[in-house]
Amino acid sequence: MNEEIRLLMSNVNTSIIQIRAAYAMWAKVHGLNYHEVLIFYAMRDNEECTQKKIADSYRLPKQTVNNIITSLKKDGYLTLIPVRKNAKEKILALTESGEAYYRSIMEPILEFETLASEKMGKEEIRQMTALAIKFGQILEESISLQTNTDVTKEGNHNE
Fold first, then answer.
1. pLDDT tens-digit map of 30-74
2. Domain count of the chain?
3. Is 68 exposed, middle or buried (0-12, 13-18, 19+ CB in 10 A)?
4. Is the residue at 152 inside a domain?
5. Rounded CA gap, 79 and 83, in Å?
6. 96-150: per-residue pLDDT in tens?
7. Is residue 36 part of a domain?
8. The HTH marR-type domain covers which part of the protein (predicted)?
9. Which domain holds residue 84?
10. Is residue 84 a part of any domain in this protein?
11. Facing residues of 50 across strands?
12. Mind giving me the DSSP string for 69-130?
């Protein structure tokens, strides 16, 4: 790898770590961990959110997702609704207290995202998103080909 590419990749990795650290710090201040916040994002982004969708979308081990869901359910924030096609699969639904908890956690962080996005502008956000998606796909394909594994499958990644 030439020096310019090495430096660019170092900057990419540092940027990813910086963004993730900001979310992790937000989570910690609110008594959560980073993965718990991801569960809330998944529920926001998927009308019929299931444990499998979360694990697949965020490349998390199913057990990690299950542990968080079990905890949220125990705390009274979440209920599970069986899927008609597959009784084993359950849709996550917030309870009334879960909705209030969700709003207390997510509304402020979404405001921070909005402020940051407005400072960057829609076009830069579009470019950043498109390039991050493209890079992620190329990197996953390259690693999958080199290792003969599917890096998108649960179990091939760490918490």
1. 999 999 999 999 999 888 899 999 999 898 999 999 999 999 999
2. 1
3. buried
4. no
5. 13
6. 999 999 999 999 999 999 999 999 999 999 999 999 999 999 999 999 899 888 7
7. yes
8. 1-137
9. 3-147
10. yes
11. 91
12. HHHHHHTTSEEEEE-SS-TT-EEEEE-HHHHHHHHHHHHHHHHHHHHHHHHH-HHHHHHHHH
